[in-house]
Amino acid sequence: MAVIGLLFYSCNKDESVPNEPEISQDIAVLSFGPVLNEMVNRAAVRQQIDDLPECSDATPAFAQLSLTYGESDTPIDLVVEILSDENGLFTAYDEELEIPIPSGSTTVSVTLTDFLVLSDNGGIPGDVIWAAPKMDSEYAVFVETPLPLTWDLRAGSKTYVDVPVLCFDDRQVNLYGYLFFDITPKELSTLCFFANYCTESGRHYTANYSLDLYLGTSSLGTPLYLDQTPETGNDGQFYADPVCLTVPAPEDGIDASEPYLYYEITLTDWPDNYGTAGNYIEAGTLSWLQVQELLNPDGTTAEYKHIYLNCEESNDDGEDTYVTVTVDTRNITADNLNETVFFTDNRSSTASNSAVPENHIALVNPNRRIFWSGTTLESDTGETIIITEVYRKEEGGEMILTRTYTEPDLEGFLIGDVRSDYIEGFEFYNLVFTIYGETERTFTIDPKIKMQPN
């Protein structure tokens, strides 16, 4: 395969150009020059790097770039026209590339993080034809200075920065250090995965795994993410956080109900949990509708796609439990909690959904979550109820919850993770809530949790 690459460094040039207006001393002006090195056309060099894609015949017409500047890392995302002269290619003047110099300073730091070169499509940006590879990407070895590039600009200067680039193939976008939707902007969504592993005897474990996700219907598609692994731990029970990824909507011409994402999940070792992994892989496809169905009402967070490795997959993954603690803030005292605190939830039967806290039983499913939130009985008190802590009693019965925590995107909720394998019996716990108003008042109540099989 004919290929190109380059093995040289970028250079910065501060120049004054004849007939250009004088540059103010409170700014510095930037221009970028994409550079391909013709030396790699030599047969010996091509033989060494024949994995690189062929070059397009299209003329470079636009640059799509991202940079940050200053102590606050102010971002700039820009598409700018590419011009040429006897010295080569360079980006046209653009007001957004006038970088302000901080007051009292003579320089400002700039970091270029993304740089793509596009063809012309009737006067507008077309396809990506060249890309500057990023550090730690597979193609970074073919350039002397992969992105990010950082340098200081002097006040009143116009700086030309050479950017080493490689010919581009969108089927290999990850090899340059970019994600597919960096190259082709699309509507984005959140997609999460969680996995269980079952031994031959049928015992369920929370799984550790490696996830590959492709744009397409097989591993021959465009890689979106490779070798993604969950955050695992043990805080009394082994747990693995869902792997949550940002995915693009399908290409034009692919219906929302058609498969367009392909995933492979491979079980990996977890020495302290189930030990050495067998050769277990689960693969499948997803449509845009299936991705959207996993979204929560906030439109940002998502339920996970539940994967079973060597398990008889359940037809019912269960559901999350939402418990609301309603407090009569006008009358509550430490002595009348059963008369002034009321529990309701989305799961319990009429008999167990008692308003008396000490008798309330929250029903939960394996591998799901329970959400606690608080509210006042009367809306005009100006007070708020925050669930501050949930913890297991000393004689707490069965260990149903693996941990409790909060998430920044779910304000007002305390969240508990339910263990992955089904057990019978109750877990007895204490719930602590605080009333915030003119004064702060904190109380502790003691409901129960019970597991239902999926």
Automatic annotation (TrEMBL):
Q: What is this protein called?
A: Uncharacterized protein
Ranked from the top, the taxonomy reads: Bacteria, Pseudomonadati, Bacteroidota, Flavobacteriia, Flavobacteriales
State the organism of origin. Answer: Christiangramia gaetbulicola
- Give the domain of life: Bacteria
